[in-house]
Structures are given as C-alpha cells and as structure tokens.
Amino acid sequence: MNRIDRRELLALLGVGGVVFASGLTACTRATSAPALPPLARAPLDDFIFLQLSDTHWGFKGAPNPEADVSLKKAIAAINAAAVAPDFIVFTGDLTHTTDDAKERRARLAQFKEIVAELKVKTLRFIPGEHDASIDHGEAYAEALGAKNWSFDHKGIHFIGLDNVSDPAGGLGDAQLAWLAADLANVPEATPIVVFAHRPLFDLHPPWEWATRDSARAIEILSKRQNVTVFYGHIHQEHHHMTGAIAHHAARSLVFPLPAPGAVPKRAPLPWDANASDHGIGHRAVALEHGTPRVTEVPLR
C-alpha cells in the first residue's frame, strides 16, 4: 500500500475503527497522551485493519432505539470505503446476553451472517462476557471458533485473549501459560498487538472493569519492548499506560456508558435524539512518521 496523508486515509475510509500500521509502536492519543519513540528496526509494510467492539446484537431498549441498524450501518460504511482493510477484529460482546441457550445461539448465528457481508478476506473475533460467561464460551466456540489466538501479519504479532469465558473475569493459568509460550516463539524486536475484551488493568473493579489476573498477563507482556493493547467492554474512549504498555478502549456500536465511577451504578447513558453520533462509533488510529495516533470517529 502506498503512503497517503492521514486526513486522506480517514476521508477515504469514511468510518473509524481504523488502524494504519507500519512499524507499530505503542499507540498514543493524538490530543493528549505523549508519543513513545519508535524502536529502531527495518521498515515494515504499511497496512490498515479495523477494530469494532461491543455490537450487542439482539439488544433492544431505550438506550438505543436504532440498535437493529447500528451494526449494519457500520458495515455499509466500511464496504463503501475506497481503502480496504487487511483484516477486521471484533473485540467482544458481539451479542447481547440472554439466559436462553437457544436464543444465544440464534443471536450468534445472526451476528455471523450479518458480518459476513463485510468485504474483507479475514475476520477475527474474541468473546465478551455477554457472549460467553454464562456457558463458559460453549455457544461462542460453536459459532466462531477459538476464543484466543495469535497470528503474524507484515512483521507484527497479533494476539487475541479471552478474559470473559471465566465468569469471574480472568484469563486462567492455562491461557497465561499459552501466552508466555506464544511470545517465546516471537523475535524480541517484533511489535506486539493484543486484543482483549475487558481491560488488562484495574480500571474500576466495582463495575467489573478489570481482569482478575491481569497483573500476571502484564508481567508476561512487559518482558517485550513494544506492546499495545486494544480492548472494549467500557463503551467509551479511554487511554491508560501500565509501564510502557499503552491500553486503548474503543467505543461501542450500541450505547455509551458513564466514565469509571462517575455515578453510583453503571448503566447506559440515555439516548439523545438530537445528538449527531449518540456517543457510539469507532476508533481511528493512523500512523504519522512512524508513530500511531489515536482519534475517535463517531458513527453517524
């Protein structure tokens, strides 16, 4: 892919959730967070990928009276873009929770059918607690396959973690051992990108905005020079550093949630019929001179 101006890239895509990666370093928010210097390495191929999160297919309620079309609108916008992503990752809560096992499978099947319309060769998924915590991810695995995975793409190592199939919100000994073993096979200088649903740090444990054994995961990841974590779950933009590891939360495609601890009880923010974006949308990350910059692009 030829290098293009950042504004041109975002205009061509017309939607957010875009990551433009080349020699990926720890990402930073364009408006506030300090940029980390890129590591010295051979240039990597430029490419884009998309992250969408918290689509909650099957949700119905006042917080989003348009919940049945939000995901479809995003897909239409992505398909209409002039720049195609190399792949797309959905970071959990693909469907809205239900105690009915038959309905859970139906929603997962419907979600899978809808996102199959995306004009992209590769789709990747990790579960959210709405998809997986009730049955330990059984229905999710039947519909979408592995709950954690890794792959390499154009010089970057990508990892998807499952921190929701455990109802207590942990990764577990087996997955932590898998993570350590996976990284042991990756060259030291390779940039690492991690996808998780819950944050891999204690953002606000009273609202279950944490991962029970995240400290162990961060200990493993901190042995690497260049790690960025993208997650969902909290339905809003948020940026955090654990040492040199940058963590970035994505907006939801269904409704926003309040800032951590801002109100006594976590609940969706009310729908504002006059709002242009209703607090939902995607994140856009564009590479500028070797340093990725994070912005938010609302769904309109």
CATH topology: Purple Acid Phosphatase, chain A, domain 2
Mean pLDDT: 84
Write the CATH homologous superfamily. Answer: Metallo-dependent phosphatases
Question: How many helical stretches?
Answer: 7
Distance between the termini: 28 Å
- The helix content, as a percent range, equals 10-25%
Query: Could you say which structural class the secondary elements and strand pairing correspond to?
Result: alpha/beta
Identify the CATH class.
Alpha Beta
Cα shape: globular
* Beta fraction: 15-25%
Provide the low-confidence segments as ranges: 1-6, 22-42, 286-291
| Major sheet: arrangement of strands | 6-7-8-9-11-10
Structure description:
By secondary structure, this protein is an alpha/beta fold. The chain has a single domain, classed as Purple Acid Phosphatase, chain A, domain 2 (4-Layer Sandwich). The protein has seven helices and 13 strands. A six-stranded mixed β-sheet has the order 6-7-8-9-11-10, with no helix packed on it. Strands 1-3-4-5 form a four-stranded mixed β-sheet, with no helix packed on it. A three-stranded mixed β-sheet has the order 2-13-12, covered by helices on one side. α3 runs parallel beside α5. The N terminus is likely disordered.
Give a topology summary.
Layout: H1 6-13, E1 18-21, E2 28-29, E3 47-52, H2 67-80, E4 87-91, H3 101-115, E5 122-126, H4 129-132, H5 138-144, E6 149-153, E7 156-160, H6 173-184, E8 192-195, H7 214-221, E9 227-231, E10 238-242, E11 245-249, E12 281-288, E13 291-298
Parallel strand pairs: 2-13, 3-4, 4-5, 7-8, 8-9, 9-11
Antiparallel strand pairs: 1-3, 6-7, 10-11, 12-13
Helix pairs in contact: 3-5, 6-7
